[in-house]
Amino acid sequence: MTSDKAKDYWSRNLRLVLGCLVVWFAVSFLFGILLVDVLNTVQIGGYKLGFWFAQQGSIYTFVALVFFYASKMNKLDREFDVHEG
User: Fold this and answer.
1) Which of 10, 23, 25, 27 falls between 20 and 30 A from 59, CA-CA?
2) In Å, how far are 47, 65, 78 from 33, measured between CA atoms?
3) What's the domain range around 80?
């Protein structure tokens, strides 16, 4: 892999990681802690939305982000021909 391709690969990788971290931060910290009172005005299935994000939503989002990241990285690895196998 050439130096320019390697820089492009890592740049796109870091952009993906930062995007995932921003989503994770928003869901876990903002929705679960800072905006909990605002979100608690909405109820889903009898539970306040802020409580749900603090207890379950951040976990579900984290698991979804793991699968999203793995999928995107597999595509990126194939695009730059650095995939396994």
Assistant:
1) 10
2) 16, 20, 39
3) 24-85
Going from the C-alpha of 19 to that of each of 55, 63, 66, the distances in angstroms are 22, 15, 12
Domain-embedded: residue 36 = yes
CA–CA dist 9, 82 (Å, integer): 10
Tell me, yes or no, whether 45 lies in a domain: yes
Say what the pTM is. Answer: 0.84
Compute CA distances 15 → 46, 50, 57, whole Å.
38, 29, 24
CA dist 64 and 20 (Å) reads: 10
